[in-house]
Amino acid sequence: MAQQILQQSKEAEAAVADALECWGHIPVQDVPTILKHLSSIHWSDRKEGLLGLLSVLRSGRTLSLPDLKKVTDMFTKMFMDPHTKVFTLFLEALGELIHVHSADLHSWLYILLTRLFIKTGTDLLSSLQMKIQKILSIIR
């Protein structure tokens, strides 16, 4: 009896360890799926799209120029996202996008800087203000 309980406990422990290991891993998605999520009206889908985009950019893949144009158009709209979780992820993804595609973003730079300066003048959490300042320093 005690042996059976011990075995069940070990199995439960292994299941929890597996779940925690998989929780932090976001699978790399294909770009059309990411674009579909980013353009969704639901905040949870936008969040998934941003997580997918972060995964793609951090994996070393780059976006094609048409896909980059679509992402920058969506990012221009995301500056006004009302959900803090989405906006926080957006700023993180924006930093990665600038880092990976700095040579390809010249045409979007004026719009980007304008939106960032407008956001710095609004009432935001200090953590978000710090992220915006970090993005501005990346652009410099």
From TrEMBL:
Molecular function via GO: microtubule binding
Any one cellular-component term (Gene Ontology): kinetochore
BP-aspect Gene Ontology terms: establishment of mitotic spindle localization; mitotic spindle assembly
PANTHER family named among the record's database cross-references: CLASP (PTHR21567), CLIP-ASSOCIATING PROTEIN (PTHR21567:SF9)
UniProt name for this protein: Uncharacterized protein
Taxonomic source organism: Rhipicephalus microplus
